[in-house]
């Protein structure tokens, strides 16, 4: 498995950033990747590409560029997976679904009646409520029109930011990436743990340590291509955490319902199949992770959408067992995300009894 800091200029990567669009980013990535494979003798391998957030743009463009080469020695792409991806405008992925999202998780926002009424009134007057109700349906009614407020920074219709500013007054530790977070304010050794940077006195970011930078040889200091990528791959997976507010799941589903691939527009049925995560045999406190029915999923015409409960924006961080199961599907080791079976790397099955239970056998 390879983690890549890109585009040029990101993190510790060196060079002059000169890419002006995702096509240039992809071309530069292919040059790097070819050199990497040649250097370490890794040619003629199946390629699986994954990413999160803005990688919702990067991953499809990189996959598209690789597929366009028809060069399986270096670029034999098998499948892609993108988590909580940026794939559309802020209006679609934030503003339009915001009111319904607050309603769905009302206890985690704790707004009073007057502000809740304001949310509903604004969503209605800006056209968000009607747009969501009319177009987030299965199958889609046809090509979606432009969002009712294409410029999401318009003050009178910037509902997403109104909600965020209000919730900070109630819960100053609110995390846009995982909305169940409350005070005290958390910090992360990797940096950027939540809505804003926070580093307590005496703490140090891991990758700012000189010894770490020396160890890794670091310097001391979407939509236009996604349909064709889906059509040329065995599997394309879009995963979304239920507790993510920075990019809301219904916004991603709106994007999907406006996308045409393999001869039809959008999903024809809603994602209602159960997403099952097996129990693992090692019940050690250091490896505890959730299991059982962990959300919903659907697969149509080569595209899989999986909605992961109990997870925010960073699914591998908040729901590692769910992410691991999704990787098994990405690699083609299981037939579907609804399959009730053990982890392929843990064949003894649920609670070590070799079974395919949907709950541990010692749970009554």
Automatic annotation (TrEMBL):
Protein name, per record: Carboxypeptidase
Origin species: Ramalina farinacea
Pfam families xref list: Peptidase_S10
Record keywords, A-Z: Carboxypeptidase, Glycoprotein, Hydrolase, Protease
Gene Ontology MF terms: serine-type carboxypeptidase activity
Assigned protein family: Belongs to the peptidase S10 family.
Gene3D superfamilies registered for this protein in UniProt: alpha/beta hydrolase
Region (Disordered): 345-364
InterPro entries, A to Z: AB_hydrolase_fold, Peptidase_S10, Ser_caboxypep_his_AS, Ser_caboxypep_ser_AS
Superkingdom classification of source: Eukaryota
EC annotation from Swiss-Prot or TrEMBL: 3.4.16.-
